[in-house]
Structures are given as C-alpha cells and as structure tokens.
Amino acid sequence: LAGRARPEAAGGRPGPGREDFRPRIVPYARDPSKPYKKVLRTRYIQTELGFHERLFVAVLTSKATLNTLAVAVNKTVAHHFPRLLYFTGLRSAKVPHGMVLVAHGDERPIWLMYETMHYIHQHFGSDYDWFYIMQDDTYAQAEQVKALVTHLSINQDVYLGRAEEFIGGDEQARYCHGGFGYLISRSLLLKLHPHLDSCRNEILSVRPDEWLGRCIIDFLGIACVSQLQGQHYHTYELAKNTEPEKEEEEEFQAALAVHPVSDMTLMYRLHKHFSRIQLDRAYQEIQDLQMQIRNLTSLTPAGEAGLTWPVGINAPFLPKSRFEVISWDYFTEQHLFSCPDGSPKCELSGASKADVSEIIESALEQLNSRYQPLLRFSKRQLLNGYRRFDPTRGMEYTLDLLLEAVTQKGHSHILAKRVSLVRPLSKVEIIPMPYVTEATRVQLVLPLTVQDLDFVANFLDMFAMNTLDTHDNALLTLLFIYHPYDAQRVSQVDVFAGVKAMVGELEKRYAEVKIPWISVKTEVPSQVKLMDIVSKKHPVDTLFFLASVWTEINMEFLNRCRMNTISNWQVFFPVHFQEFNPALVYRGEQTASSSTDFLRDGHFDRHSFAEACFYNSDYMTARTKLAADILDRDEVLESMEVFDVFLHYSGLHLFRAVEPGLVQKYALRSCNPRLSEELYHRCVLSNLEGLASRSHLAMALFEQEQANST
C-alpha cells in the first residue's frame, strides 16, 4: 500500500487544489531476468511503515551540576518524556542511578554542542520527528512541550525557542537561547548535519547556543522564532530569590520553560508549583465536561434518568446471571475479610492498607470541601467498609463512617454517614516489552520418579509426534530420580531400564536426535535441587520448559512458552487444564471425543506450579540471591519450588496465566509426605479438585445412595 494517492481535482482529475489521502495498491512484479532474493522483513511493523517516535530530549550538563541539577531534572520531568539522554564533556563521569549519560570527553562548550548534535543525528536522526535541547538549569513543563509538538507540522524546518539577537549582528538574524530550551525538527537536523564540520571550523563563538544559531542561519538561512503555526513558545526568566509559590504573573503561569534554576530545591519547588497548576486545570476541565454532560443528558431518550454517577464515568456493570454478580469485599481499618490465600480473615497491610487509608482521607476531604465553613468533619471510626473492582469503571468503595461534626460556633455532634467513592480506571498505556522470537530453542526438562513410569510412554509418543515429526526447535532432557534403595540395586535391577529402552528406540528412529538423561539419588525430590543440577549442565542462554510426565507437548504451547518468556524481564508459569476422572464424569458411558467438547470436562489446576518456562540466566541470578539468604541451610530448599525462587529472589515479571494448549489426562498424583506441609497440602487439594465437578460428584453420590437403598 502506498501512503498517499495523487491529488485529484473535482471531477476525478488531478489537481493541486485538493488532496485525497486514499491508499492505493502498488502491484508487485518481479523481474524474471534477476535472481530471486528473499525479502527480509523488519523486526517491528513501525520500522517497516516508516513511523517515527514523537520527541527526543537532550539535556546538556557539566561536571559541577551532574549530581545536583541533572539529578533534579531526572526526578522531576524525565519520566514524562518518551526518551531523554544527558550529554556531558567529562571523560569518565560516574553516572547517577537511573540516568543515561553520553560523555564526549571534552568540556569545551562549543565542542560539546557539536558532538551532541552529531551524536543525535547519528543515533536518533531516523527515529524521531522532534528534538528538544535544554540545559540542566532549565525547568521545562514536559506535558506542555509534548502538547506543543503535536500541533506542529513535521514537514517544515523548525527552529523554535526564545529568540535572541546576536550582539552587534543583524536584527533579523536571531538564535534560540539555550537556557530556555529549543525545538528542532527532524528535517532541519538532516539538512544541518552536513554543515556541522564547517561550522566548527569557521564560526567563532563563546556561547554554544549562539554558535548553533549562527550555523543554522549561515548555512540554511533559518532564524529562530518564538511562535510558529499559531503556537507560542512561552518562557519566563527567574529573578534571584524568586518564590515560585508567590509568582502570580500570567507570563510565569503559561511558561513552557523557566530559567535559570539555581539549585535542586528550586527545581523541585517549580515542579510542585506547575504540577499543581496542571492538576487544577485538569479538575476544572473535568467539571466543565461534567456540566456539559448534565446539560445534554436531558436531550437524550433516557432523559435525566440516564445520568450515571460519577458524571462522565461508565455506568456500573449489569450482570445477566447470578454468576456474573461482582461480590464486595468487606474490610475494617485493621482487617480484610477476603484474603488472597483463601482464609476468612487477615491483617490489613501493604498496598491494601495504604488504599484504605487513602480512600478514608479522600472521603473526609470531599465532605469538608462540600460543607465547610458551616461544618467541619473529623473521623472517629470506620464502622464498615466495602470495595469491589468493576472492570467497566474501576474500584468502587462504600464506607460507613462514624464522624464528629463541629459547627462554626464550636458545637459538636456525633453522626454516622455512608459515602460512596469510585477510583476510576486511568488512561490505558502501552508498556514497552523487549523483542522475543518464536525461533528460540526450548529445552524440555522432565523429572521422573518410579510412580511416573506408567505415563512415560504416552509423554514420549506425544513429544515425538508434535516436536520431532514437525522438526520443532525443541530438545528433551530426562531426569531420573532414584530412591536410595533403588539406587543401591541399579546394577541388578534398574527401575528406569524400560524408559531408557524407549529413549534408545526414539534415537534410532530419529538419527539426528539425542535425548540425554541425568540420574539423581534422593528421598525428597525438591524441584529447586533438581533444577540446580540441570542448570549447571546447560548454557546460560538456555530457555527451559520444566514439564511434568502428564503433559502433552504441542507446538501451540511451545510457541507461547517462547513468546511469554523474556530474558531478564519475565518468566512464564502456565496453568494447565486438568481433565476430570472419566469414571465419575461419564459413569460407564463412552467418552465424548468431538472437538466441541474441548476443555469441557475438567478445570484449570491453579494449585499446580509444576510447569514453568524461564531462562537459565534468570534462574542462576535468582538462585544466587537465594543461596546468600539461606547460607548452608539446604533443608529450606525442600519447602520451595522454582516459582518461590522467582517470586522472592528476582525482580522479574511473573506471568501466570491459564494455558488451553497444555492439557493433562486424569491421573491420581502421588504426593510425597516428605515434602513441606504446604506442598503436600497443595498436591492433595489438586487431586481432590481434579476428581470431578460438583454436579458430577453430586450425581455419583445420588446414584450410590440409590444403589444402597435398593
């Protein structure tokens, strides 16, 4: 598809008066005389379509201000910009935490500006539409700068900032003052780059901003402007000992950039002041929109009855059946009565406690703002608290508060008040994720005990059919777990001899395939201890899939394992689908095998953490932290799974999701009582919940009672 069709005039003829941005199909015709060449697709569709990011920000800093003002810039506005880099002339500068620093090795101001412009063009010139250059003693309103570039055309050569006259120069020729920041378009940067060397050799100046302005004027004939396309670049020059909180000038309130900022404290005070201004503007805009909604609601078919609360927020979710009703969680200031672990009561702590405290404080603030100065409320006690998450609008709260109301004359009265609050969902953001590919090799690890021997043949058959026959990029390693008694008799009777024979048959059938095995002797097959052995025998970039013998491997799941596991970022713990006991579900009837019954008679086993996808490097990093924590107490490992290692000893994302491609036939698992109480309990619970659904169990009990009665 071409991005733009040829302009056409009225009547269907081409003409300059009208632009029609209709796509047209460009036919592909390969020259038969030329050899065929495979088309290489780009990694991202954004690159292939030629899209650019909106804004790149460069902050010029120095040795004296790197650890002060530059840090203040990083803590105030850096996270509001899509990409921000710091540039300095230091050779070996120690980079403060959370900052990306480019050191040029020469502290001369003109040289720093030259190297910065050259670096920006070389590394980011083809990726961004706009380039904003500022100093670390400048406070810039990030949201205002981002809004400014959205209103400017990218097809023009733009040099926008606070226009200043050259000393003793032409009045028409102006440069952009570096202290207030300036904006350069991509087209201007591309045209300027070939002349940077000439500017460095021919133009003499003390100030880097004057040097750059003279370079742009002399070679491109473009002067700095303070307004363009109806957009103004407002700035404000701070006087000494300025109090930002007391500045009421309209010029200061509307400023995109403020300069000079003398110290870190002033930078933080400016950020607080302008953040408050933006917040007040947002609240005022919300009130205006709510008033417009109220005025227009009366004209709708539903009338004022269709007005929802809060105004402008989606109406609550309306359930269609009793299974869709969203339940409320009850809480007090000390306890929560709907706990993550399933217990009926637990202490209110962490994020939940902060949430409750904040919502009570917000309720009091809203009450006081509505009734003051006639009444002033203070909290005595939270009588009842309810909350629920509504996916259509956000978190809803209902609070019963015991309040003390004080009048203007000082009279007080105790009363109970019910308030309702909503914490609405904010704007959806796209989180950048590292690139992954479906071509990564997956290393399957299958631990086997004596109790698993009856299921190995089916596992190997499915592995051969879905990976070896399809030439999927997957390998298999078997882990034979010998009981000490069986290990002593292995020379006479090897309990895994049959499995080894099956592996030999597979290797004969697939000559290029090798299936290694590792033998381990232990009474307690700790998942962490087993992975320690496997991890040492594979490269650090290995992608492991820790499987169980009941798993039926297929290409669909392996691809999701590859895509959901990201090195140094995310690990994947799928929730497999466990089929119910056919003897209870079908009770002698023939098992249904149609495709419509897929994932019907079973459940997703959320008690099992046996399957996992992770990179060896991530496991080794987390395992090292675990070793430092437990020292030589290896018995602790018997109560842990790989999931616990990543949960407590890594900062990675734990991606836990149901996996429809991971289906397991019913089998009664053998629960090892030597494991920790929690692991043993989860294993027993998994067996019990995997028997059948409540309706199937009820029917089986009913039939049994009927049989006993007769």
Automatic annotation (TrEMBL):
UniProt xrefs under Pfam families: CHGN
Principal subcellular localization: Golgi
Biased composition (Low complexity): 1-11
Sorted UniProt keywords: Glycoprotein, Golgi apparatus, Membrane, Signal-anchor, Transferase, Transmembrane, Transmembrane helix
Membrane topology: Single-pass type II membrane protein
Record flagged with keyword Disulfide bond: no
Leading EC class: transferase
Gene Ontology cellular-component annotations: Golgi cisterna membrane
UniProt region (Disordered), positions on chain: 1-24
Subcellular location: Golgi apparatus, Golgi stack membrane
Domain of life from the UniProt record: Eukaryota
PANTHER family to which the protein is assigned, alphabetical: CHONDROITIN SULFATE GLUCURONYLTRANSFERASE (PTHR12369:SF14), CHONDROITIN SYNTHASE (PTHR12369)
Protein name per its UniProtKB record: Hexosyltransferase
UniProt lineage: Eukaryota, Metazoa, Chordata, Craniata, Vertebrata
